[in-house]
Amino acid sequence: MKLSRRKFIRDSSLSMAGAMFLPKSVLQDLSFEGGHILGLQLYSVRDDMKNDPSGTLKQLADMGYKNVEHANYIDGKFYGYTPAQFKKLLDGLGLKMPSGHTVMNASDYDKSKNDFTDKWKQTIHDAATVGQHYVISPWLDENLRKSYDDLLGFLDVFNKCGELCKKSGLKFGYHNHDFEFKYYLNGKKIYDIILEKTDPKLVMQQLDTGNMYGAGGRALDIISQHPGRFESMHVKDEIKSSGKGEMDDEYESTVLGKGIMPVKEIIDLAKKSGGTTEFIIEQESYQGKTPVECAKADLAVMKGWGY
Fold first, then answer.
1. Range of the structural domain that residue 297 is part of
2. Farthest CA pair distance, the chain
3. Disulfide-capable partner of 16 in 33, 81, 122, 204 (CB 3.0 to 4.6 Å)?
């Protein structure tokens, strides 16, 4: 049975304890080509990464990728490697990992101590070790968004996490799905509340252009309404779902330029006025192609568009 991205995110958990923070001098420098970073979310090739992480990363490097974004930090390891080991693997292939996805849950903040748990502090430490610049939480548990006050309380934790990340030279971020555009609290769309109540100096937003589509969100409108708020972007194209894809949704992702979204117009606007410097390709459904074939095709399209 295929594991959906949402279920994968919800079920992922960490079990680390104790941490120190790395000095900023240890953090990996980021290289910007043409004023931006272009990379691949490794969830796009999740089965390949599960079966052969090093071989899959080599394939990506050989086809021209310079940056990747992880979706697998479990028990203090990235795809089964310690942070130091994974950074060595990336370095050997000429790859960098400027961002990664790790869910921050309510249990990661101890209200009685007004502090983050050692487990979450270790998460930040390991992100710094592997060379991340952004620590991005790609989910918001339903229990944290049942009421306006509950949501505001956890968004305050978002800002606190921004302060925590800042100590290690990192920045905390949030990645949207579709519920943020479907549901309202106190007459406001959840995504609008998130943007309003998080400090952009502490919490960056990674705009997923495809996740919102089935819920009525349109990336061009969001970027125009909130200029400068989206330091990072998941670049996707969407088609009507065949019912055979990885998601049980009305739409599914496809090779860039083959779907119904104005992808180039979106990324050009993001680069011009959205504040976007990191463009991360993600494709979760493949329409008969292999994930690696799709990753190669997506990269060629982005390069053809000047990215």
1. 5-304
2. 53
3. 122
- Alpha carbon of 220 to those of 31, 174, 208, 256, 278: distances in Å? 27, 19, 12, 16, 17
DSSP H/E element including 99: strand 96-101
The pLDDT of residue 178 is 96
pTM across the whole model: 0.89
Beta strands in 48-147 (DSSP E): 67-70, 73-74, 77-78, 96-101, 109-110, 115-116, 134-137
CA distance 133 to 204: 11
Residue-wise pLDDT tens digits, 209-255:
999 999 999 999 999 999 999 999 999 999 999 875 555 589 999 99
For tokens 């994974």, the residue is 86
> What does the pLDDT read at residue 35?
83
Structure tokens at 279: 């463009």
Q: Please, which residues bridge with residue 234 across strands?
A: 208, 280
Give residue 80's region: left, alpha or beta (phi > 0; psi -120 to 50): left
Tabulate helix, strand, coil % of the chain (nearest 5). 40, 20, 40
Domain harbouring 96, CATH code = 3.20.20.150
